[in-house]
Amino acid sequence: MVVTIYGNPSALILFPNTMNITLIICAPLALAPQAFFIYRLWRLSQNLALVGFCSLLAACRFAFHLIVGITAIHMRNIALVIDQWKWSITTMFVTSVACDAIVAIAVTHILRTQRTEFRRTSWIIDKLIFYSVATGLITIGGELAQALCFWAMPHNYVWLGFYAVESGLYTNSLLAALNSRAVFDRTWTIQPSTDRSSHPSYPRSATGDKAPYFSVVNIPSEDERSGQGESPYKGQF
């Protein structure tokens, strides 16, 4: 925009074609990660009412997102879209933040109630809680920044800058959640071996340097409780 329409400030009042495409594509890109996290909540809680409410929020957010995108394509004028459809944009922000926050809080609460007196299991659950909170905060923080800028400064278009990277935040949070499952499956059976001191124990490598040492940890009583040797959360996270 700063190259092709340089010297023509009046052109900035119209949505460029690239922004129109972004408005439409962001809707399904945001819905897919939210659906995945809601499905994960269902696998953990089996609470139909909670999952149904979160699904309704995600569907409403998707619908209002499409409404704003289609309206922007037809009207083109940014100021007109903001003035006439401010309620729709606000509803989109509120439902999105509410959905992400409820899912993150619910997953965190469920995982905390599943902590056991086994140190390794509790350590895995703490890591799962950390990943759940972190991935939730990424999208919630982006949506809140976007909403606050829109409510405080609707006509300087700073909120559109956050909107342009919104789909990237959702897709990266989804990829982080998917990749973390492989990490946790490996961590369930392989953990770093440490001595009783505060420093880890490393054997010497052939070059004389300290090399990381990993040993397989087997806790029969814990495996018996889970019913098998692999992580009880495999397939859920």
From TrEMBL:
<dbReference type="Pfam" id="PF20152">
    <property type="entry name" value="DUF6534"/>
</dbReference>
<keyword id="KW-0472">Membrane</keyword>
<feature type="transmembrane region" description="Helical">
    <location>
        <begin position="49"/>
        <end position="75"/>
    </location>
</feature>
<feature type="transmembrane region" description="Helical">
    <location>
        <begin position="159"/>
        <end position="178"/>
    </location>
</feature>
<keyword id="KW-0812">Transmembrane</keyword>
<feature type="region of interest" description="Disordered">
    <location>
        <begin position="192"/>
        <end position="212"/>
    </location>
</feature>
<dbReference type="InterPro" id="IPR045339">
    <property type="entry name" value="DUF6534"/>
</dbReference>
<feature type="transmembrane region" description="Helical">
    <location>
        <begin position="128"/>
        <end position="153"/>
    </location>
</feature>
<feature type="transmembrane region" description="Helical">
    <location>
        <begin position="20"/>
        <end position="42"/>
    </location>
</feature>
<feature type="domain" description="DUF6534">
    <location>
        <begin position="96"/>
        <end position="182"/>
    </location>
</feature>
<feature type="transmembrane region" description="Helical">
    <location>
        <begin position="87"/>
        <end position="107"/>
    </location>
</feature>
<keyword id="KW-1133">Transmembrane helix</keyword>
<protein>
    <recommendedName>
        <fullName>DUF6534 domain-containing protein</fullName>
    </recommendedName>
</protein>
